[in-house]
Amino acid sequence: MPLYLTTEAECSPMDLGISAGGPKASVEASIQRWQTPDIEIFKKLFDLFDKLQANIHRVQWIGWSFLALGRSEPFADWRKRLPFLINNIRIGYIFGEQRLHEKAQRRSLPTGRVPDNEVYRDLRPGVMITSKSTDQAKYDVMATSGVCLRSPSGAKYITVAKHGFPGGVGDHVLHPSRDGHFIAEVDKVFGETDIALAKLADVRYSRETFSAADGPVRPFRNFLYSKHSRIGELIFMDTPFNGRCEGVLMKTDCLRIPADEPADQVRYIMGHFAYFGNGADTLFDGCCGGVIWNSDHDILGQFRFQQEGSDELCYCPSFDVLGSSGYTISDA
To answer: What is the per-residue pLDDT across 203-245, written as a single tens digit (0 to 9) for each?
Structure first.
């Protein structure tokens, strides 16, 4: 069971939202506690909130309850009109702008913690990378390399954080710094997910991350789709700035945004919120792009940012979009 320790009497690890007092509601779906809903169920929930004019743009699952998030209260008496239960599952509401960081930032590294900027000939998830487009900058914008993928056509890519490569498509991925080696070129971006794919140059790239001191060498297996994730399960990340991190999956998230294509009115982005330590600011600038995996070495997604506030939850966009597009985990 997850354990949260704090010295503050009113502190909690997660905001559960405010309950409403309106009548029960339902959607045509089977929703079971501790079974993560698939994206179609989230879409039905958004449809329900649209009918209620609730102005909800984000719905989250925490294992036994939903959270519905909106940028502002839809009407003054919303607590009397919005449902308390949907399909007999409790739902909490959070209204107001959410304070989020686009990436984890820290002014300085703790004493004794030195990032791993070594040059690796045999590359793998978790090595230091940077963007060629920062050549004229006074400092490197550092990031963490992701997992190697095989496209449906057989081409080899690695996952990277889109915001770490401001040049976009065509930007060069260098290891470990801008004075280092060219290893890949950004070739595809996936909308607002912050996931990008960089096509590998003629380099070796393993599907195994660095081994834990007390663990065996295990290659990554498959993508773990959001609907198969389990709230409360242990998850892991390994970056050149933090080393091996262990955390807990706290929420599965579905964000609805306007679509780029006129034919589609909205798009849905699946992701996760994870907890990597008892409120401590432990994640540094540069973790972005580090892959998140579970005890079975199945990959859920990649690190994007740490949420501002007391809970310090970290947002990780899901790799659902990659699996559904035909990409598979591979070596190069």
So the answer is: 999 999 887 666 677 899 999 999 999 999 999 999 998 888 8
Sign of the Cα pseudo-torsion (39, 198, 291, 144, in order): negative
How far apart CA 241 and CA 116 sit, in angstroms, is 7
Q: Give, for 38, the enclosing helix (H) or strand (E).
A: none
Nearest to 45 by CA among 27, 24, 25: 27
302 CB-near residues (< 8 Å, 6+ apart): 146, 159, 161, 194, 195, 288, 289, 290, 291, 292, 316, 317, 319
Compute the distance between CA of residue 32 and CA of residue 5 in angstroms, rounded to an integer. Answer: 29
Which residues sit opposite 235 in a β-bridge?
247, 294
**Using CA atoms, how far apart are residues 96 and 12, in angstroms rounded to an integer?**
19
Positive or negative, the CA dihedral 211, 296, 160, 253 is: negative
Selection from 12, 103, 58 nearest residue 306 by Cα: 103
> What are the pLDDT digits (tens) for 35-79?
999 999 999 999 999 999 999 999 999 999 999 999 999 999 999
Report field, pTM of the whole predicted structure over 0.85: yes
What would the DSSP string read from start to end of 50-105?
HHTT----EEEE-SSEEEEEESS-SSTTHHHHSBSEETTEEEEEEES---B-SS--
* Token representation of residue 144: 């963490």
